[in-house]
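Appendix B.2, paired examples.
Example (i):
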Amino acid sequence: MNKINYIELNDKIVFEVIPERSDISNKGSFGKLLNISGSYCMSGAAVLSSLAAYRCGVGLVSVACPQSAVTLIASGIREATFLTFPEIEGRTDAASASKLIKEKIGRFSACLVGCGMGNTPETENIVSCIIKNASCPVIIDADGINSICGCADVLKEANSQIILTPHLKEASRLMQVKIDTLFENKIKFSQKFVSKYNVTLVLKDSHTLIFDPSGEIYSLDYANSGLSKGGSGDVLSGIIASFAAQGLPALKAACCGVWLHSEAGRRCAEQLSKTSMLPSDIINKLSEIFKENSR
């Protein structure tokens, strides 16, 4: 069996590709992110992913969410703007939401979808609409992934770069393989999947692997139980989406996101302990990392 050659992520790889910021600029200079996330019962996912995206330099975040969730999300993030989806009997009107997405998606340089949306038929319809209509990079996480597990072929209809960020259980559903089998054969199944669907895949675990259709595999082997809390994945997705919105290609955006998320998590664990650290603490540590590496 051939030995797999991983490229181990480090700070040098990351800060060589993060774009420098010119002082002669405006918010449009640093990209615009459409964050289709959150719901009445999971508003925090939209807050965390949006704050993480802003902390990593994106110029504008617009949160698209059901009308019932706007006040809850807005109370957690002052900087975002909003697109609101109408609801019918407490459920998102998927037809109206899809129409709005088609009208607005061209204004954005990246789109994040899935954090805290709920695994519903409405989510599936919205995610499918984005995949088929977006010309900008699309980052799909959480319920966005779960919603297409039975119809992954929709990914073949994409006209843009797609980044998927599943943990092992989500990946097993997406790839239609038992989780134990996937765990023992991560390389085989992941390479087959990214080749078939032409996507970038961030397979989240204590040893995170990033797969790309080019055949490159990036690796980050750092276990931190402090990241095993609801909301950590939303932070990671927001970071990746921020860099995609700022113009980094899918693979580079994914690599920057994974390393920064891990490094911020490591610092949180050292300062606060793995037991007490929160996903929001990870966001706050990002500024420290950027300050140390400012150019």
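Example (ii):
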Amino acid sequence: MMMQFEFSSLSKSALYESLNTALSSLLSAESDFHANLANTAALLYWNLPDVNWAGFYLLKSDELLLAPFQGKLACTRIKLGRGVCGTAALKNETILVPDVEAFPGHIACDSASRSEIVIPINIGGKLLGVLDVDSPTKDRFDETDRQGLEKLVSILVEKLSLHERSRFLHTMIRVGDLNKSIDFYTRVLGFELVRKSDYPDDKFTLAFLRVRAGTSDEPELELTYNWGVENYDLGKGYGHIALAVSSLKEFQEKIRREGWDFSWGPSTTPSGKGGMAFIKDPDGYSIELLEGR
């Protein structure tokens, strides 16, 4: 269903009231996280006057990653504390900049931008990212814009919070050689190591990994290494971890170059609608590989 909104000839405060009402209507019809961010960016870009960029950056580790937006090509990654977006994220507070050229460390993604406002997005006390709106006009944003956009973010957060109340975070498996397992999941399967922590008092180490092409809200794989324990009985209850791959043939060629191969397959799924294969990690855990998902 396509939804269109018309907000011409409204005062600024009335415009924000209408935009917030429209956003509530948009969000009520959709639960997908990125779809809602995309429509929010479009709603602002096409209805706020004198704006040349509107969109989101989401926090990933120690930097902001470009998310749905409207406008010219933008900076893809911004370190915390850098530029207006990075500073707003680090301080976790709204920053309104009348003249970006006077802002220390401003990152000029679009040389036409002259003023900017950035609003942090928090869910359950955790910084999720920021809303960023730019204008080619100096002194474009004022207190009415701040209040209107902060209200809009609160509406968005309320919707996202419903999504966040039950969210898959990670799967944990115990491993006998942590370095070997990290090497397998990063070098062979293409994961990235997100963080690693030692717990000397309890004598164990945790490592969290995520698919390299994923986002900050993607579930992670938690590897638990209990110091001095080299192997485990995997039991009969464990099934597998599932990963999507674009081509089983190309993936098999890649892992063979790394000294690994499928433990089963390739074959077709039980439904016959795609390809599948299995590979085992250093501890014998099975990973299902599904083609074309």
